[in-house]
């Protein structure tokens, strides 16, 4: 039995009729590498069943504390049935990319059953007409509640149920006996003891923040970084409105080798800067087409993992077994008010570098450490109240979108002997934050998935085109650049009034 962290539990508390807080991915496999060139559904069930010991969360469900006096616990599901969690369907002919995206979006509209383990896999056949995909391919669309995983742990879980060779032999079966769930009285007793010791723990955490405050003040005075000017003045766009609960999905694919060539045009730039520049360029194009581009630049939330370097490895078995969330985030100016693509990339690099410096000074885990001291009942009531009042769409926006980049394995993975051709990240669309960009890298390719609401973005294929054109413009600008540009000076801190 293990209790959810406050960060994990927060994704349960903010769920409502329009927002189902599950995340996951879409994966396509080439059956030709499997024995006899075919993968059967019963084979998939057997494969997943044999790999369940590597991901214990797949056989655990939530146990709520009476009265929501504390955060829930993970307990074994004594009635676990893998055939409930793995479902089989097929696309009608011609089985093209648009049909797959529409089906995936419809599947994502449906909430998970909170009385069972919080995941579902959909095995989808009939992919007969998708450009670049081998004939006879099949897809797997996954849904897992965000309370159970973040981007890093989710990628580690998916890596754990794959092989690095087209080998269909299964691990030795391990007997599993579910452990009995605790009684309500035991959970209430735990909640009482936790709340009794909470004030002392809060004081200890507060004292640990004093060095962070000193680092921030020193960094500002020495102009090592500045408070982002966009804070408090983020423009409101269609992306910050209400959602209907009906999702749309599309995605673009890029070669990592070409992205590296682009990043080399700006000294110190990273692949993530290039990804952000693609997002900034695409949003500029999309909003210009709607005659809705604001004068101020759009701002993105860019989640960052606060796990150790080893724990961020997608092949780390401990991360796959533990699951959960361990993330912070930084705000980055996307330069949507800058026309020149290379100038936009430089601007994004400067903004990201400043945000990283500020985040480092604060301490990436500081805010998440404090969240554990908010009682579960308070967090749940506050989330439901904010949702009922529609505060997400009425208050000044903090960001306009999310771009989350999770590195994946740079070698082929196999599922029941079938080689994974590519993968796409799927996330959360909610009131006030109606466009999610999920970025995954795999085996030399980078995919950017745009997930939005049907009322906010009725033309997802056009937005995919905007992403592709934004990258082509970056490549063209890189080729035309006579030499590398010198890095700009770090942002100067605003002078405080005397």
What are its keywords?
disordered C terminus, 2 domains, 6-stranded mixed sheet, 15 strands, Chloramphenicol Acetyltransferase, single chain, alpha+beta, 15 helices, 498 residues
Protein architecture, described:
With 498 residues, this protein is α+β, with helices and mostly antiparallel strands. It has two domains: 2-173 and 180-186, Chloramphenicol Acetyltransferase (2-Layer Sandwich); 215-410 and 426-480, Chloramphenicol Acetyltransferase (2-Layer Sandwich). It is 37% helix and 20% strand. It is built from 15 helices and 15 strands. β5 (86-90), α4 (97-109) and β6 (119-127) form a beta-alpha-beta unit. α8 packs across α9 and α9 crosses α11 (341-362). The longest helix has 25 residues, at 184-208. The chain is globular, with a radius of gyration of 23 Å. The chain starts with a strand and ends in an 18-residue tail after the last helix.
What secondary-structure arrangement, pairings included, does this model have?
Blueprint: E1 2-3, H1 6-13, E2 22-30, H2 41-51, E3 60-63, E4 73-76, H3 82-85, E5 86-90, H4 97-109, E6 119-127, E7 137-145, H5 151-160, H6 184-208, H7 210-221, E8 247-255, H8 256-263, H9 271-289, E9 299-305, H10 317-322, E10 327-333, H11 341-362, H12 366-371, H13 376-389, H14 391-394, E11 401-406, E12 414-415, E13 418-426, E14 435-442, E15 445-453, H15 460-480
Parallel strand pairs: 5-6, 9-11, 11-14
Antiparallel strand pairs: 1-4, 2-7, 2-13, 3-4, 6-7, 8-15, 9-10, 12-13, 14-15
Helix pairs in contact: 1-13, 8-9, 9-11, 9-15
């Amino acid at each position: 039995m293990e209790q959810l962290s406050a960060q994990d539990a927060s994704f349960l508390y903010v769920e409502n009729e329009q927002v189902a807080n599950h995340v996951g991915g879409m994966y396509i496999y080439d059956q030709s590498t499997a024995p006899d060139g075919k993968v059967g559904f019963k084979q998939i069930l057997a494969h997943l069943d044999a790999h369940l010991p590597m991901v214990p969360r797949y056989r655990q469900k939530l146990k709520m504390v009476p009265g929501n006096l504390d955060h829930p616990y993970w307990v074994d599901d004594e009635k676990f049935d893998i055939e409930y969690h793995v479902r089989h369907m097929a696309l009608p002919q011609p089985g093209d990319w648009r049909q797959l995206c529409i089906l995936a979006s419809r599947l994502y509209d449906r909430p998970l059953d909170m009385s069972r383990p919080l995941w579902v896999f959909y095995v989808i056949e009939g992919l007969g007409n998708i450009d670049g995909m081998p004939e006879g391919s099949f897809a797997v669309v996954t849904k897992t509640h965000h309370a159970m995983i973040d981007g890093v742990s989710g990628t580690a879980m998916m890596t754990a149920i794959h092989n690095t060779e087209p080998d269909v032999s299964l691990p030795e079966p391990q007997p599993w006996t579910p452990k009995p769930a605790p009684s309500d009285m035991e959970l209430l007793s735990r909640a009482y003891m936790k709340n009794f010791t909470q004030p002392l723990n809060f004081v200890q955490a507060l004292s640990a923040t004093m060095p962070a405050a000193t680092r921030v003040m020193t960094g500002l005075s020495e102009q090592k970084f500045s408070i982002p000017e966009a804070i408090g003045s983020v423009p409101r766009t269609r992306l910050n409105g209400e959602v209907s609960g009906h999702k749309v999905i599309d995605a673009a694919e890029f070669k990592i080798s070409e992205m590296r060539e682009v990043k080399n045009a700006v000294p110190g730039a990273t692949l993530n800067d290039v990804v952000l520049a693609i997002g900034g360029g695409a949003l500029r194009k999309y909003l210009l087409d709607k005659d809705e581009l604001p004068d101020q630049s759009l701002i993105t939330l860019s989640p960052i993992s606060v796990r150790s370097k080893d724990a961020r490895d997608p092949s780390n078995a401990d991360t796959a077994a533990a699951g959960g969330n361990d993330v912070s985030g930084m705000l980055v100016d996307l330069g949507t008010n800058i026309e020149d693509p290379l100038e936009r990339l430089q601007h994004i690099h400067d903004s990201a570098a400043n945000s990283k410096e500020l985040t480092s000074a604060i301490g990436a885990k500081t805010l998440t450490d404090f969240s554990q001291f908010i009682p579960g009942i308070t967090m749940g009531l506050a989330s439901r109240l904010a949702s009922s009042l529609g505060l997400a769409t009425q208050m000044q926006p903090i960001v306009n979108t999310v771009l989350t980049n999770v590195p994946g394995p740079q070698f082929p993975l196999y599922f029941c002997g079938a080689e994974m051709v590519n993968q796409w990240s799927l996330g959360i669309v909610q009131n006030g934050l109606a466009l999610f960009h999920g970025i995954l890298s795999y085996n030399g390719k980078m995919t950017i998935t745009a997930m939005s609401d049907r009322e906010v973005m009725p033309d997802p294929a056009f937005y995919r085109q905007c992403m592709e054109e934004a990258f082509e413009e970056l490549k063209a600008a890189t080729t035309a650049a006579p030499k590398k540009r010198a890095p700009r000076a770090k942002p100067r801190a605003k002078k405080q009034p005397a």
